[in-house]
Amino acid sequence: MSQWSSILGHQRILDVFEQAIDSGRMHHAYLLTGPPGIGKFTVAHAMAAVLNCTSRPDSFAPDCGQCSTCRRIEKLQHPDVLLVDPPKRQIVIDQIRDVQKACVSAPYEGRYRVVLINEAHAMTEEAANALLKTLEEPPDRTMLFVVTDQPHRLLETIISRCQRMRFGALDEQLVADALPRFLNSDDDDDDPPQFDQRLLNIAAGYGEGSLGRSLAMLESGMLEDREQFLSELFDVDPRSSVDWLDVAEKLGDSTEHLEQRIDVLTVFFRDLMLFKRAEPDRIVNADLRELIERRADDFSLDAIIATLEALMSARYRLRGHVSAQLLAEDLVDRLRRPNDRALDPPA
Ligand SMILES: [Zn+2]
Questions:
Q1: Domain presence at residue 192
Q2: Confidence check: pLDDT of 193 > 70
Q3: How far, in Å, is the centroid of ligand 1 from the Cα of 182?
Q4: Is residue 346 part of a domain?
Q5: 347 lies in a domain?
Q6: How far is the CA of 57 from the centre of ligand 1 (A)?
């Protein structure tokens, strides 16, 4: 299957790449930025195929998806397509040195050597400085795609040497319609899981234009468990410290789960706000309308806004090395006494 033709959205960016190929004015390095899970790496990976596809004329054409080059690039098994991504938390200097060594010679068989640096913000300082050298003296017939959702963590000098492509959120309806294709794509199962349209729409609402986040929500099973999770949470007696500690312990039992639960809480509180502001049509948890109505009076608008800020801050801190348990305890303390803590700054 053609990688280029199956890209979801981002038409303006695809047009820029098409024109660059047509006019023979490809930049040697592109920086692809934007929220996680919206297809930045997918576009860079597809460009590697487009640039090298053996059946492409000199002008732009999508990769054919059939030739041996396309097939090997799709599996990242082509000698001229190099992937650099953080094996754990960091991209280290040896990984960049390997790229530099490869770039000394001409591409083995492709038109171009394509270097895909995914999660580029994870480069150590030494790795970033080494990459900068490569960007300052770009090797012949080599194209770099630097991909990140956190460009503020890159060296200014790296950013300025790349042509920047800013990816925006995808249209939620586009995501909702595309989800089934991605959910069942690598399932050889005769009986792939079926999701009803209502749940797909809710998942798209949760993802806020990120296909990756919508998929993760669906696959985690958290969407089906929303109602139970929220009801249990809000049914705890506000006076019982022991019960709330229990809730905190469950909430923070793993970083991954906490992230999804924070997402569920964030969307729920946003829905509460929409309900209080009499904008019920925009509610994402359309199927939890009754629960939203029932809980709306427990939280002042100030408390809702403060809780949303606390959730946002928790989500951000979760990306660092903060303990999930500590974050969970702070969140639970807010949920337990929402209106008292409305004026406290987020932790
Ligand atoms: Zn091809």
A1: no
A2: no
A3: 22
A4: no
A5: no
A6: 11
Amino acid identity for residue 320 in this structure = G
Write down the pLDDT at residue 235. 87
Mean pLDDT of the residues in the chain: 91
Cα of 110 vs centre of ligand 1, distance in Å, is 11
Neighbours of 168 (CB within 10 A): 13
Q: What three-state secondary structure class fits 31?
A: strand
Whose structure tokens read 């409305």? 342
- Are residues 137 and 27 part of one domain? yes
Domain of 44 in residue numbering reads as: 4-166
The string of pLDDT tens digits covering residues 165-190 is: 999 999 999 999 999 988 866 555 56
Same domain, yes or no: 12 and 94? yes
Kindly give the distance from the C-alpha atom of residue 75 to the centroid of ligand 1, in angstroms, as a whole number: 13
Among residues 133, 166, 199, which one ends one of the domains? 166
User: Is residue 68 assigned to a domain?
Assistant: yes
Q: 146 with 31: CB under 8 angstroms?
A: yes
Q: Decide: 68 and 110 in contact? Cβ < 8 Å.
A: no
More confident residue, 218 or 31: 31
Residues 96 and 162 in one domain: yes
Shared domain check, 255 and 155: no
CA distance 92 to 70: 29
Gap between the Cα atoms of 149 and 147, Å rounded = 7
- Is residue 315 over pLDDT 90? no
Rounded to two decimals, the pTM is 0.84
Distance 231 CA to ligand 1 centre (A): 52
Ligand 1 centroid from CA 62, angstroms: 8
Closest Cα to residue 85, out of 122, 58, 126, 34?
A: 122
Name every residue whose Cβ is closer than 8 Å to that of residue 178 and which is 6 or more positions away in sequence: 8, 211
Q: Are both 154 and 8 inside the same structural domain?
A: yes
pLDDT band at residue 192 using 50, 70 and 90 as cut-offs: low
Give me ligand 1 centre to Cα 70, in Å.
Answer: 4
Last residue of a domain, one of 134, 166, 198: 166
Output the pLDDT for position 147. Answer: 98
- pLDDT of the residue at 154: 97
In angstroms, what is the span from residue 116 Cα to ligand 1's centroid? 19
